[in-house]
Write a sequence for this structure.
């Protein structure tokens, strides 16, 4: 029996996202970063406010102990600093250092070029429709119990 269009769609969604991340990871290897690290650097850089370690773990969909070890490595490498929260002295926020900001600029440049290459031959109308569909699915998934 052939899989339904819904099954094909969910598999394609998952596989495309995984393949995209893996290809970008290969592209960023020259920066000396693994996927977890460049995802963390990006999340910290894009945040509207300094993130606590717990908030960063939530954004990366990992457990707190995992993000603590990751932050330890990024601190040791000189890319991030832990700073006491201004509102809760028990909480440490994570910010990029100047070296971390430079690294983020390189990651962003490489990822923008990679995205442009992948999407160069995609029809603009199809891209727009797919984007709207994915944004709708994301909202529905986030609202689901």
């Amino acid at each position: 029996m052939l899989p339904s269009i819904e099954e094909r769609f969910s598999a394609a969604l998952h596989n495309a996202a995984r393949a995209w991340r893996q290809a970008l990871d290969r592209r960023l290897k020259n920066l000396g970063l693994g996927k977890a690290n460049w995802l963390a650097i990006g999340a910290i850089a894009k945040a509207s406010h300094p993130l606590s370690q717990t908030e960063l773990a939530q954004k990366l969909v990992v457990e707190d102990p995992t993000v603590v070890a990751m932050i330890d490595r990024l601190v040791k490498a000189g890319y991030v600093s832990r700073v006491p929260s201004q509102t809760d002295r028990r909480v440490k926020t994570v910010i990029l250092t100047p070296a971390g900001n430079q690294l983020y600029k390189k990651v962003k440049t490489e990822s923008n070029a990679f995205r442009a290459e992948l999407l160069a031959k995609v029809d603009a109308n199809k891209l727009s429709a797919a984007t709207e569909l994915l944004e709708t699915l994301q909202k529905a998934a986030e609202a689901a119990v």
